[in-house]
Design a protein that fits this description.
The complex is a heterodimer of chains A (113) and B (114). Chain A has 113 residues and is an all-beta fold. Chain A contains no helices and 11 strands. Chain B is mainly beta and 114 residues long. In chain B, a hairpin with a 2-residue loop joins strand 5 and strand 6. Classes of the chains: A mainly beta (113), B mainly beta (114). Chains A and B meet through strand 4, strand 5 and strand 10 of A and strand 4, strand 5, strand 9 and strand 10 of B.
């Protein structure tokens, strides 16, 4: 039972263009959503998050959008840079559960020159 | 500023052997977690702790045990290693700040059971 889904295993984008990574969830109890970035042989590093009371959160080149009615969130990276090439995980949690995270399967982003 | 430190980074175990994966954090976080990541999959929660002396099962606890005697340390014990436990293990910690908050991860332990 995959409660958080990332249906695109990989994405290739040219440097300078926009990268859009998508994530869907099924558990309506989730009220906090996060994106993590992971390089090979390293642990995931936190990128950006959004609470369910918002529909957008921006941090520099990274913006996360949340559509609660569709149970969908997306991460936009503008402009994409070669250093953004990594695996991106979407994760979700709900208040009162000790911030336990449920992860998607990840999307591998390749930013080409 | 070490953050979350895991040891060892790599380990090969024979079936039936036991080992302890070490995890320590220096951020005074009250919450700690163990996740495993299998190839092509997301991270799955094994065990978690909300403070010293308190632990609870996650999604995939079978074959593992944990303890939390101090705020800093959260070791994961494998008693009888099985090939199905071949995976990359990540320890993480987070702090309580009202609602949910982000977790900080260690660099991982790659375990192979043969």
């Amino acid at each position: 039972d995959q409660q958080v889904k990332q249906n695109s295993p990989s994405l290739s984008v040219q440097e300078g263009r926009i990268s859009i990574l998508n994530c869907d969830y099924t558990n309506s109890m989730f009220d906090y959503f996060l994106w993590y970035k992971k390089y090979p042989a390293e642990g995931p590093t936190f990128l950006i998050s959004i609470s369910s009371i918002k529909d957008k959160n921006e941090d520099g080149r990274f913006t996360v959008f949340l559509n609660k009615s569709a149970k969908h969130l997306s991460l936009h990276i503008v402009p994409s840079q070669p250093g953004d090439s990594a695996v991106y995980f979407c994760a979700a949690s709900h208040t009162g559960t000790a911030s336990k995270l449920t992860f998607g399967t990840g999307t591998r982003l390749q930013v080409t020159l | 500023n070490a953050g979350v430190t895991q040891t060892p980074k790599f380990r090969i175990l024979k079936i039936g052997q036991s080992m302890t994966l070490q995890c320590t954090q220096d951020m005074n976080h009250n919450y700690m977690y163990w996740y495993r990541q299998d190839p092509g999959m997301g991270l799955k929660l094994i065990y978690y702790s909300v403070g010293a002396g308190i632990t609870d099962k996650g999604e995939v606890p079978n074959g593992y045990n944990v303890s939390r005697s101090t705020t800093e340390d959260f070791p994961l014990r494998l008693e009888l290693a099985a090939p199905s436990q071949t995976s990359v293990y990540f320890c993480a910690s987070s702090y309580r700040q009202g609602g949910s908050t982000e977790a900080f991860f260690g660099q991982g332990t790659r375990l192979t059971v043969v």
